[in-house]
Amino acid sequence: MYFFHTNPSGRILNRFSKDMGQVDEILPAVMIDVIQIFLQLLGIIIVIVVVNYYFIIPTLVVGIIFYFLRGYYLSASRNIKRIEAITRSPIYSHLSASLNGLTTIRSFGAQPILIKEFDKIQDNHSGAFYLFISTSRAFGFWLDLFCVMYIAVVTASFFIFGGEGGNVGLAITQALAMTGMVQWGMRQSAELENTMTAVERVVEYETVDPEDELEASGDLKPPPDWPQHGHIIFDKLSLRYFPDPTAELVLKDLDFDILPMEKIGIVGRTGAGKSSIINALFRLSYNDGSIIIDQRDTNLMGLHDLRSKVSIIPQEPVLFSGSMRYNLDPFDEYSDDKLWSALEEVQLKDSVRDMPGGLQGRITESGANFSVGQRQLICLARAILRENKVLVLDEATANVDPQTDALIQSTIRNRFANCTILTIAHRLHTIMDCDKVMVMDAGQLVEYASPYELLNDLSGNKVFYGMAKQTGRSTFDSLCKMAAEAHEARKNK
């Protein structure tokens, strides 16, 4: 994921469209052009030298001038070409972001702001591209100037020193043919080298560090029914988002134990490290230390082996272009009956049956033909299908209406009662019935106990108590009541 965090979509699109297009289409044509022109030039120079071998002196002089002129031009144009390629990426990024947020832009009437931003980005690119064209034309002008001087020297020498008529005519016509050819040949050779910046940019992606092994072998491969209990141990776990071992740690030496079937709420201020715990669990970043699930160290497992056994219902529901069946079961692991059963549990069976094609019905890009609530229910159905013992909820009901919220909460309580659940909470009332609350602050675990204990024990850090208190008197009383009821229910159970 580090690659996608550090490379915006515009930069990736740029490499795979414009840069790859230059490598595949422009580079071969320019290379053939350069080879043909320089072979023709070599033939012309040989003809002129054969007529009068003294012409080798001005030819060498002009060749040396062209060599230094080309080097001087290339040092500038190559860097301008890089700048032109770099300033092209934000155009793709801006266009992609604008298309994705078109509804929001129109609802806020922000079109003039976006148009102004786009014009500014395009002006930057146009300025770099114009500068590239200008340097190319200036280079051509100086080449023409020295070519004309060379022809003048060749022609004048025949008048001064004389020569056979046929040979003189041949040498002069060949020298005249050089004018356009030398300029075009030198410009094409420079263009060849400039186009190699596209190769340089594409090859740069060849050195991207791959993820770890997708599947482990031998004893490291977990059995099909793993994990059976959902017992999770974080053992001195630290996490960083950058591959550099000296990079700043986002999570620092986390040490805690989540018992099988426990429901854990994770709370904290913005940037406290809540989502980073999920990153660590799925090994999306760089972990130091261990996460042990049912006595197996996840660091030693294949990524597919681990990630397929941990379900997640994200805050922003993710759907792909394709059929409903593909979105529920992308690897064709389950029967149609099981898919219909999962859809029935989230009350989407009738909606999907009414679609043209049923399970083969088309889902548009990002699930645009479904409401946000329905998309979240499809993600819930996906989690139900997998029947994993570990479930992660990233405030799955933050963007849905109250009815869908109630349906999701009741389905999770009933369907995942025997699972270990980790819930990242953005609203405190959603985790008041959890067995324990994990309070994060600056990447460290500061409190870890039941909501009832944290709201009534004022001898500790009081971070959770302070967060609850800030919600207002009436909400605080409501939270205390919910925590007390959940505590009483657990005691009776």
Topology readout:
Elements: H1 2-6, H2 9-51, H3 56-100, H4 102-107, H5 111-161, H6 165-204, E1 232-240, E2 251-258, E3 263-268, H7 274-282, E4 286-293, E5 296-297, H8 303-307, E6 310-313, E7 322-323, H9 324-328, H10 336-345, H11 349-354, E8 362-363, H12 372-386, E9 390-394, H13 402-415, E10 420-424, E11 436-441, E12 444-449, H14 451-456, H15 463-469, H16 473-492
Parallel strand pairs: 3-10, 3-11, 6-9, 9-10
Antiparallel strand pairs: 1-2, 1-4, 4-5, 7-8, 11-12
Helix pairs in contact: 2-3, 2-6, 3-5, 3-6, 5-6, 10-12, 12-13
Descriptive account of the structure:
The radius of gyration is 34 Å and the shape is elongated. By secondary structure, the protein is an alpha/beta fold. The protein has 16 helices and twelve strands. The protein has two domains: about 200 residues, ABC transporter type 1, transmembrane domain (ABC transporter transmembrane region fold, Up-down Bundle), CATH 1.20.1560; about 210 residues, Rossmann fold. The strands form three sheets. The chain has a six-stranded mixed sheet with strand order 6-9-10-3-11-12. It has a four-stranded antiparallel sheet with strand order 2-1-4-5, with helices on one face. Strands 7-8 form a two-stranded antiparallel ribbon.
